[in-house]
UniProtKB/TrEMBL annotation:
InterPro entries for this protein: ModA, ModA/WtpA
Protein name: Molybdate transport system substrate-binding protein
Keyword Metal-binding among UniProt keywords: yes
Cross-referenced NCBIfam families: modA
Source organism: Halomonas fontilapidosi
Keywords, comma-separated and alphabetical: Metal-binding, Molybdenum, Signal
GO biological process, one term: molybdate ion transport
Highest taxon of the lineage: Bacteria
């Protein structure tokens, strides 16, 4: 899937001179990519691609907006279902492609409390619950809203796996997206939060925080799919094809994502 020899990528390379003058496509991008995607766009443009207008947010919200006619040309979701549902309703050209598999992490401000060990990554949530029950404090635990954010769904599943979902109800604060959840997790009143590993690895976040990955089997796979919205222009198609190449895959891997081939063990 990610071979640089695929015919579509070769065709795109032939279009570089004309695409450089094309209108910038508008792209809907899951907020788990908020730090990775600017680098992807930078490399795309360095190879002759046009400018890109990017909107970050929760995948469920983008799914609704596209169904209501929002003028996006390419949608990079943090899950598969948002894209597949749009395809079934004829809002995307096809079922698209899996471009990455994400990971969940516990994140907290540096130097405030001991970082949980890898074998008990949600020990900080247990400690927060105990402190609240003892009347000592009410430390917040941040996550994205599971109603429309795939990483919020994964966070709920991880807390449920650890037997902490119900007990943490009074402490939970939910972000509109996983990027907002990361902001909440590092606030003064927060103990920490469950966010995308890609956000925890971003330099702007890593310089003031620390993290521990959540075991992948504590939640359903965070398989991320993208697709061209029906009527997308050539510039969006060029970006879509480039994102399936090896250079894009290497950038995503540096931000904690697995590419589809790596996730399959190839």
């Amino acid at each position: 899937m990610f071979s640089p020899l695929r015919w579509a990528l070769v065709a795109w390379l032939a279009l570089i001179p004309s695409l450089a003058l094309a209108e910038a496509p508008t792209v809907a991008v899951a907020s788990s990519l908020q730090f990775a995607f600017p680098e992807l766009v930078e490399r795309f443009r360095a190879q002759g691609g046009p400018p890109v207008r990017v909107n970050y947010g929760a995948s469920g919200n983008f799914r609704r907006q596209i169904a209501q006619g929002a003028p996006f040309e390419l949608f990079l979701s943090a899950d598969e279902q948002s894209v597949l549902a749009l395809h079934e309703a004829d809002f995307t050209e096809d079922a698209g492609e899996i471009y990455a598999v994400g990971r969940l992490a516990w994140i907290q401000r540096s130097g405030r409390e001991p970082l949980p060990a890898g074998e008990a990554p949600l020990a900080a949530v247990e400690a927060a619950i105990a402190a609240y029950r003892a009347g000592e404090e009410r430390p917040r635990v941040a996550l994205a809203n599971p109603e429309h954010a795939p990483y919020g769904v994964a966070a709920r599943q991880a807390l449920t796996h650890a037997g902490l979902w119900e007990d943490s109800e009074a402490l939970r604060v939910m972000g509109e997206s996983v990027a907002q959840a990361a902001q909440f997790a590092l606030a003064d009143e927060a103990r920490g939060g469950l966010v995308a590993l890609s956000l925890a690895l971003a330099p702007a976040v890593a310089e003031r925080s620390e993290y521990v990955p959540i075991p992948a089997d504590w939640h359903a796979p965070l398989t991320q799919r993208m697709a061209l919205v029906t009527g997308a222009g050539e510039s969006a198609r060029a970006l879509y094809e480039w994102l399936q190449g090896e250079e894009a895959g290497s950038i995503l891997e540096r931000f904690g994502f697995q590419t589809p081939d790596a996730a399959d063990g190839h």
